[in-house]
From TrEMBL:
Family annotation (PANTHER family): 1,2-PHENYLACETYL-COA EPOXIDASE, SUBUNIT C (PTHR30458:SF0), PHENYLACETIC ACID DEGRADATION PROTEIN PAA (PTHR30458)
GO cellular component: cytosol
SUPFAM superfamilies associated with the record: Ferritin-like (SSF47240)
Provenance organism: Nonomuraea pusilla
Entry protein name: Ring-1,2-phenylacetyl-CoA epoxidase subunit PaaC
GO biological process, one term: phenylacetate catabolic process
Family matches, as InterPro entries: Aromatic_CoA_ox/epox, Ferritin-like, Ferritin-like_SF, PaaA_PaaC, PaaC
Pfam family, one: PaaA_PaaC
Top-level division of the source organism's lineage: Bacteria
NCBIfam families: PA_CoA_Oxy3
Transmembrane parts of this sequence: none
Length: 303
């Protein structure tokens, strides 16, 4: 037996020739679909990628803070799922931007570097350059709020990914097909906790109701249709967020009933000024300061 056999990674390499990691987009046609403007498709991938990246970081902040060890592991896994989706989508956005000669437009870092990649998009844009919904950037200071927010976010994202699985862009379709399985678990996990809290003790019910009342009005932003989303949806490439209203309201109504929570559906989506337009809350600045600290301190480092 060789001395490397005691090391699990060496054992895998000896048996398979590599670590077993596979590119989920290997073999997927990356050519742009006809009828979709490259700038629009890059912007759309940024939107979905930023949603996942920012929500992932919020969930990561529950590590060492969740009410039980098993829940810390569950939230870490959900955060990793979203981080994986963010990587694929930001890589697609970078590929399109670089190919379209739109690298770094509007940012000094991008202009200096000349080309984008997933890391540069994640770590070297300021808040105004992010296109995530503001719903994802709200701090998770209370566990009940975190679960209700994850429930709403996951139910909405699942509806979008389900539609995107038939996108005319093969890359978006592949990302969505993988993401549907992941986000269905995220939704069910958050729903389980919401019911457990709402239908639990008097105190847990009170906190769940407060979270429900605080989070639900913010969900209207998720149903707003940005002009980029509208154009790409008409071309069969993107998912129209407004079409997710029925599924979102149905999920929330059923969970509220099981959790014995008073429920009011999300209101009318705002006409503008949302995170899709780069209009964010101060919380995103503090989130990015934490997310980007190491990369900006060591911009030339390799890992």
């Amino acid at each position: 037996m060789s001395h490397t056999s005691d090391n699990a990674l060496h054992a895998i390499i000896e048996a398979t020739g590599d670590l077993g990691f596979r590119d989920p987009l290997a073999g997927v046609d990356s050519r742009l679909p006809e009828g979709a403007a490259p700038a629009d498709l890059a912007a759309y991938c940024l939107m979905l990628g930023d949603d996942a990246l920012v929500m992932s970081h919020r969930l990561q902040q529950w590590c060492t803070r969740a009410p039980e060890l098993e829940e810390e592991v569950a939230l870490a896994n959900i955060a990793l799922d979203l981080l994986g989706q963010a990587r694929l989508l930001l890589s697609r956005a970078a590929q399109i931007r670089n190919g379209a000669g739109d690298a770094g437009r509007g940012t000094a870092e991008g202009a200096a570097a000349g080309r984008w990649d997933e890391d540069r998009l994640a770590f070297f844009r300021d808040a105004a350059g992010f296109r995530n919904v503001r719903f994802a950037e709200a701090p998770h200071d209370d566990f009940a709020h975190a679960m209700v927010r994850l429930l709403v976010f996951s139910a909405w994202r699942l509806a979008l990914l389900d539609r995107l699985s038939s996108s005319r862009d093969p890359v978006l379709a592949a990302v969505a097909a993988k993401g549907v399985k992941e986000v269905a678990y995220h939704r069910d996990h958050a729903a389980g906790w919401t019911v457990r809290l709402g239908d639990g003790t008097e105190l847990s019910h009170l906190r769940a109701q407060r979270a429900w009342d605080a989070v639900l009005p913010e969900a209207a932003e998720l149903l707003h249709v940005h002009e980029v989303e509208g154009r790409l949806a008409a071309a069969g490439v993107a998912a129209d967020p407004s079409t997710a209203r029925g599924e979102l309201e149905d999920v929330l109504a059923r969970v509220a009933e099981a959790a014995t929570l008073r429920h009011r559906p999300p209101g009318r989506a705002p006409d503008g000024g949302t995170g899709r337009y780069g209009v964010h809350t101060p919380e995103l600045d503090s989130l990015l300061a934490e997310l980007q600290e190491v990369a900006r301190a060591h911009p030339e480092a390799t890992w």
